[in-house]
Design goal:
Layout lengths: L5 E4 L13 E8 L2 E9 L35 E5 L2 H12 L2 E5 L3 E5 L7 E5 L16 E4 L3 H13 L6 E4 L3 E7 L5 E7 L3 H8 L2 H5 L4 E2 L2 H9 L4 H5 L9
Parallel strand pairs: 4-7, 8-11
Antiparallel strand pairs: 1-2, 2-3, 5-6, 6-7, 9-10, 9-12, 10-11
This protein binds fe (ii) ion.
Length: 243
C-alpha cells in the first residue's frame, strides 16, 4: 500500500492582513520527500458561516432562483469490501460501534441515535483500492473530549493499530488511520469554539498554513496524564484567539 501524501504548508505572502488574491506555497511531501510545491491563491475570506446567512446555495443561486434549505446533518457512509469480517471487526473497534442489523451481504453499524452511521457491504468481485484514482481522501469522526480521543488512540495502539498522521489542524486536532482496505479515516476533536474557528479560518495564520502542524500523540498524552489541560495541549502555535 502506498503512503498517503502529507501536506506541509510553508510560510506564504499572507502575513499581517489577509485578502483575496494573496498567495501561499503548499509543499506536498510523500515519505519525507518533497514531491510538489504548489502556489495557492486565496479565493475567499471574510465570510465566516456564523456571521453569514445560513442559507443553502447562497453562492449557487441563479438569477431569480429561490434559496432552499441545507441538509440538517451528515448521516452515514457506506463502504464496499472483499474483507468483510476484517472490516466489520476494525470499524466496530475504531468507532466503539454496535451492529444494528447484519447479514452475509450488508451490516449496519452505529454508535449513537442514528440508525446507521456506517454500513459495510460485501462484494467479492471488487478490485483492490487504487490511490491513483479520484475519490474520497478521508472522512472524519469527532470525539467529545481530548481524553476520549487519547483513550481511543491508546486502545487502538494496544491492538497494533496506529495512525499514519497525527496533526493539530487548529480548529480540530486529529489522528488519521487506514482501515484494512486502505480507506482513510480521521478521528478528531474540535479544538476551538465555532466562533473562534471562524476567526481562525479567516486569519493570515490559517491562510499561510491551511493544513496544520504535526504532533506527537505519545508525548502529548504524557503531558496530559501529568496534569496539563486539554486547552493547553491543543493550543495552536502562533495563533492567539481574538476573544
Ligand atoms: Fe480532515
Amino acid at each position: 500500500m502506498s503512503e498517503a501524501f502529507k501536506w506541509v504548508a510553508r510560510e506564504g505572502s499572507a502575513a499581517g492582513s489577509l485578502d483575496v488574491g494573496d498567495t501561499v506555497t503548499l509543499r506536498v511531501h510523500e515519505n519525507r520527500t518533497t514531491i510538489d510545491d504548489t502556489k495557492l491563491q486565496v479565493h475567499a475570506v471574510g465570510e465566516p458561516i456564523l456571521k453569514g446567512e445560513r442559507v443553502a446555495g447562497r453562492h449557487a443561486l441563479a438569477d431569480g432562483e429561490q434559496a432552499v434549505k441545507s441538509p440538517i446533518k451528515f448521516a452515514h457512509v457506506v463502504l464496499k469490501t472483499t474483507r468483510y469480517s476484517e472490516m466489520l471487526e476494525w470499524w466496530q473497534l475504531v468507532l466503539s460501534a454496535s451492529v444494528r442489523h447484519g447479514n452475509d451481504f450488508i451490516t449496519f453499524l452505529s454508535y449513537d441515535d442514528e440508525h446507521h452511521r456506517l454500513a459495510i457491504v460485501r462484494l467479492p468481485h471488487l478490485k483492490e483500492r487504487d490511490d491513483s484514482l479520484s475519490g474520497v481522501e478521508h472522512f472524519a469522526f469527532t470525539f467529545a473530549t481530548l481524553g476520549d480521543l487519547f483513550s481511543k488512540y491508546q486502545q487502538l495502539k494496544a491492538r497494533g493499530i496506529t495512525p499514519y498522521w497525527t496533526i493539530n489542524h487548529g480548529m480540530n486536532f486529529s489522528a488519521y488511520y487506514r482501515d484494512p482496505d486502505g480507506n482513510q479515516v480521521e478521528l478528531q476533536i474540535d479544538a476551538m469554539s465555532p466562533q473562534t474557528a471562524d476567526e481562525f479560518m479567516n486569519s493570515p495564520v490559517f491562510a499561510a498554513n491551511p493544513i496544520g502542524v504535526d504532533v506527537d500523540f505519545d508525548a502529548l498524552i504524557a503531558r496530559f496524564e501529568a496534569g496539563e489541560s486539554a486547552e493547553s495541549i491543543v493550543r495552536y502555535p502562533g495563533y492567539s484567539p481574538v476573544a
